[in-house]
Amino acid sequence: MADLGNPQNTVAVLQKHQFHFQKKYGQNFLIDTHVLDKIIRAADIQDEDLVLEIGPGIGTMTQYLCEHARQVIAVEIDPALIPILEDTLKEYQNIEIIHGDILKINIHNIVQEKNQGKPIKVVANLPYYITTPIIMGLFESHIPINSITVMVQKEVADRMGMGPGSKEYGALSLAVQYYAKPELVANVPPNCFMPRPKVGSAVIRLVRHDKPPVEVEDEAFLFKIIRASFNQRRKTLANGLNNAGEIPLTKEQIEKSIQELGFSVSIRGETLDLEQFAALSNLMKRKLQAADNASGLSGCS
Ligand code: SAM
Known about the structure:
Elements: H1 7-16, E1 29-30, H2 33-43, E2 50-54, H3 60-68, E3 71-76, H4 81-88, E4 95-99, H5 107-115, E5 120-125, H6 131-140, E6 145-153, H7 154-160, H8 171-179, E7 180-188, E8 193-194, E9 201-208, H9 219-231, H10 237-243, H11 251-260, H12 274-300
Parallel strand pairs: 2-3, 2-5, 3-4, 5-6
Antiparallel strand pairs: 1-8, 6-9, 7-9
Helix pairs in contact: 6-8, 9-10, 9-12, 10-11, 11-12
The structure holds S-adenosylmethionine.
């Protein structure tokens, strides 16, 4: 099969199938063999690996992945691309194409069935409109993952390594730092895609930490707090947490927790680093447990 990293071959496939790009699906297909080579090298795919590709498009990167991995599972949302993928990938025996939405399919089942629960590698040129939910979802759902090598918007790549004090700093920065070590593989200009995106892109590799860098009693609670803090960036941390509705402490209890950590009640969430969010989460969790215990006791008397 012709290498789809070559723009002429991509154009030929698009014409053959009379494919029309769908903006709503963030379709910008890679047309640069050097970038594809770099992604494959950075992903460090071995013969025994199972690779999950999110959004294979017409199968450009999928071809490269099939050449290196034991098995590739590619999840594509656009029904118009399924017959194209069946055509462009027909020579490969180690590909399974799933028509579906990556945010809805059960990846745990795939890992269990196809890789006996052993860690997989994720490789993708991500649809930019859902980069954050995809990456946070992969981490937070604790799918066994060895590494994630993905193309993202340059600005999002920058955000991943950021700490407090930068306007790019946010929930994604903290999730990435909690779960993995981010590494910039390459900056990729718009002319490497068809059609050209309006923004610059970057390939990043996230290698999962064996153990998170901070101790947290309840990870889901930590990320509730982090999300609530950044949902309302302009508000104080106390107001953000109080307005979130997901954190069952009173405003006074929230303010007391913030003060107990040595901060002013007027502090904003964006000034806290991962360690400080972890400390706040542990403290608030303990207050919640104490409140639960007290209400349990009073219920018995
Ligand atoms: N991998 C191809 C390449 O590099 O040329 C295409 C990358 S393109 C940036 C993103 C792909 O993700 C498109 O094929 C798009 O249809 C698909 N996509 C968008 N949203 C998706 C979703 N929720 N689940 C699965 N695929 C999705």
